[in-house]
Specification:
- This protein has 223 residues and is of the alpha/beta class.
- It is built from seven helices and nine strands.
- The strands form two sheets. A six-stranded mixed sheet has the order 5-6-7-3-8-9, sandwiched between helices.
Length: 223
């Protein structure tokens, strides 16, 4: 379970004030996969970082039960000078999991080849996402935070990502950010739409998808 209580977050970007959350109160249930939708720049990634604890709200609080992952796809999770394998080994120690098992799992899943043993700073954005997603899926979290990462890679990798994700969802929950409504429809039971600092939660993903379709329809050609 993750609960936001009167959460407010604003910041200034290019001289303009941006509101990510405006007195948001909502609860994400345990063991439910929630698709998080919103237009570009709505603040979805910032919301994930606040839930993960890597960004603080201006007001309010976020409480959770169980172990919450870092936002998968967030490059700040890894040290640029360490190799992919060294980063994975370091994270395994932090979370108290079997280091050799996690290193082997990520090596097989991410398919980075020789790059797995090269510095993280040399990775492309796609390679970073593969490493991040594989590392997160290799650890048994109670809630996974996933930021667009399953859109990276070819069709084979996407299918493999969804298979592993669905296997984890048998005993966990997730908050998944994606612009792919088809993917969210397959992977999520519930949904939420972030719009102008307000968060609208729907127990049925179909209701969230309809809200989002109306939202982007209303702004067609405007972004």
């Amino acid at each position: 379970m993750i609960r936001l209580e009167n959460v407010t977050k604003t910041y200034v970007l290019s001289g303009q004030r941006k509101t990510v959350a405006d007195d948001v109160t909502v609860e994400f249930p345990s063991k439910v996969s929630v698709g998080l939708l919103g237009r570009n720049g709505a603040g979805k990634s910032s919301l994930l970082r606040m839930i993960a604890g890597t960004m603080n709200p201006d007001a309010g609080r976020i409480v959770s039960s169980g172990l919450v992952s870092w936002p998968v796809g967030f490059a700040g999770s890894f040290h640029p000078e360490l190799t992919g394998a060294q980063n994975v080994r370091f994270i395994a120690r932090i979370y108290g999991v079997d280091t050799d098992a996690l290193v082997a799992f990520v090596q097989d899943f991410a398919g980075l080849g020789m790059h797995y043993h090269l510095p993280f700073r040399s990775y492309s954005s796609g390679m970073r996402s593969r490493l991040a997603f594989g590392t997160s899926m290799g650890i048994k979290f109670d809630t996974y935070l996933v930021d667009e990462v399953t859109s990276v890679g070819d069709a084979v990798f996407k299918k493999k990502s969804e298979r592993v994700f669905n296997a984890r969802m048998a005993n966990a929950g997730a908050i998944v950010v994606s612009h792919s409504m088809a993917m969210l429809e397959r992977m999520c039971q519930a949904g939420a739409v972030l719009e102008n600092g307000k968060l609208f939660y729907y127990p049925d993903i179909q209701d969230a998808l309809r809200h989002y379709e109306e939202l982007i329809g209303g702004f067609e050609g405007g972004e």
